[in-house]
Amino acid sequence: MSSRFRADLPSPAKLPSQERRGRGRVGGRSDTDKPRCFGRLRRNPPLIPPFQGGGWLVALLAVLMLPACDREERDPRGKPLPEGPANLNGDPRAPEYENNAFHLAQGQRLYTWMNCSGCHATGGGGMGPPLMDDEWRYGGRMEDIVTTIWNGRPNGMPAWKGRITEQQAWELAAYVRSMTAQPRQDVLSGRSDDISSTEPATLSEREKLKAEANETLPKDEQD
Amino acid sequence: MPRPAPFAYLVPRRRPGPSAAGTGSRPSPGSRKATTGLLLFLAPTIASCEGIQAIGPRDGAESAAISDLFTIFLVVTLLFYAAVIAFLVSAWWRRRGERQDGLSEHKADTSDAALNKALILWTGAVILGLTGLTLASYLTDRAIARSVPAGEPVLSVEIVANQWWWDIRYHFPDPSKNVRTANELHLPVGVPAMIYLKSNDVIHSFWVPNLAGKQDLIPGKLTDAVLVPRRTGQYRGQCAEYCGVQHAHMALDVTVESKADFARWLATQQRPAPAPANPLERAGYDYVTTRECSSCHAIAGTSASGQVGPDLTHLIGRRSIAAGTYPMTRGHLYAWIADPQSAKPGNYMPVVGLDAEQLHAIVAYLETLK
């Protein structure tokens, strides 16, 4: 065992710099300065045990984990934000719904409940246009999708105004946008809340598909 | 130092001197506290023996069979427990006053013959007891499985669990007689009811303790339970598998009634909703069938045909609102529709934001759905 980790063992050859460092630290005692160090300890009590050594790291990690508490913040009554139609010049509600895992999951539920799949299937499109590609006829921002859901669009998209609540329209829009995996990965659901034959839109799934596609390439083109 | 008498620690220690005589046999405050604590601890267990949601009463064929089995297990295991404690006490008694270093003048009789006989008897009793319990379990299980005799007419009920309510569908050979209701199960007494259990979202558990044991409802899988109610009465079921924030507010009102009463109830349920009679009801009807309500709720005989929420066709005839959250009263109906999220936070009925006139009209119309 090296003397670096057992500072209380008498070291055979002590460098002056080592001794200086040892004196300044709570645990760094050496045989020469023992009495002095004890005296200092009595005057300045040592740090409480949880914050010695690795304790700081754990506390820091705990603090870093706190922001995750927002992720699934549930707000069943809706946000106290301006009501009315979506403001097309950057509505403050858009990020509130888009960056919240709970609202995304609710949107997924509503997508089934309101039979969106009747025309759009599970996002691949049918009678209605696909929702999981990057082509948007009436705009792909949250505000545009909410407007589409709320007021309807020509050739079949019904207006849901008065049929669902405004909050539900925002939740649906957030889920529709998540089909293309545009939202933050950390708010995407790892599983479906409903029975569903489709895989959840998580990053790992896309990575898997990418890896599979890579395998089909000729050897010299693989990465 | 004098050696303490054997079992000295078992005898309540008396304070020496004349004061000991004065205290008499009154229990010390400590022991009274302990007795009160024990009674307080046992009191809630007594509460589960009777009532509308209890495992004690023998109101159904299965609960009666399980109750008998429980009594058998209790008696047999108590006998064996008493025997074990008796052995332990006799072992203490035999070695009383003996020194640990083996130098005692008094020696216990440790002859092998008597011990061997006792051991053989004990082993025989254990084998007999375990075999008996196994047999009792097996016979009870078979009896429950036979509780629906082949060929006998049964009532077929499909129960679909949702977060956090029960969707109840009665199926009949003539599909026009089918009935859909919610959070309320009516059963005729003495008629076996075949309950088919499904789940729409997560795992729930169907549990009407007065009638039968638990059965899980698993998404994508069909499970079943057989209820053979023996006594008329009102019971309470409860989801018995944690299923989300409002798991506690997922109750099921069960009514076991005579066959005639059940037929009357069924005839009521098979009728469509009546047409609105006055302008206020008409306004409520218009709102319910054309706005947010009809996206999720169905009312037979109207254009409201949502399949997501509970069927409202005979709402007012039910005992409670929102799976046992509120009793069915006018005031609670107002409270529920105005703000479902304050009564049952997190449930999937949204706050629509109705104004007072709309609310009055909706409640007036819903009150006609008897």
Distance between the termini of chain B: 87 Å
The major pleated sheet of chain B works out as: 5 strands, mixed
Shape of chain A: flat
Q: Which blocks of ≥5 consecutive residues of chain B have pLDDT under 50?
A: 1-25
Would you give an account of this structure?
The complex is a heterodimer of chains A (223) and B (370). Chain A is mainly alpha-helical and 223 residues long. Chain A contains 9 helices and no strands. Chain A has helices spanning 16-24, 34-43, 55-65, 93-98, 101-113, 117-120, 142-151, 166-178, 203-216. The radius of gyration of chain A is 29 Å and the shape is flat. Mean pLDDT of chain A is 72; it is low at 1-35 and 37-41. In chain B, the strands form 4 sheets. Chain B has a 5-stranded mixed sheet. Chain B is α+β, with helices and mostly antiparallel strands and 370 residues long. Chain B is elongated. Residues 1-25 of chain B have low confidence and may be disordered. Chain B is built from 10 helices and 12 strands.
Short description, anyone?
The complex is a heterodimer of chains A (223) and B (370). With 223 residues, chain A is mostly helical.
What does the secondary structure layout of this molecule look like, with pairings?
The complex is a heterodimer of chains A (223) and B (370).
Chain A: H1 16-24, H2 34-43, H3 55-65, H4 93-98, H5 101-113, H6 117-120, H7 142-151, H8 166-178, H9 203-216
Helix pairs in contact in A: 5-8, 7-8
Chain B: H1 19-23, H2 29-47, H3 61-94, H4 112-145, E1 155-162, E2 165-171, E3 179-182, E4 184-188, E5 193-199, E6 204-206, E7 215-217, E8 223-227, E9 233-238, E10 251-257, H5 259-270, H6 279-290, H7 292-296, E11 320-321, E12 326-327, H8 330-338, H9 340-343, H10 356-366
Parallel strand pairs in B: 1-5, 4-10
Antiparallel strand pairs in B: 1-2, 2-3, 5-8, 6-7, 9-10, 11-12
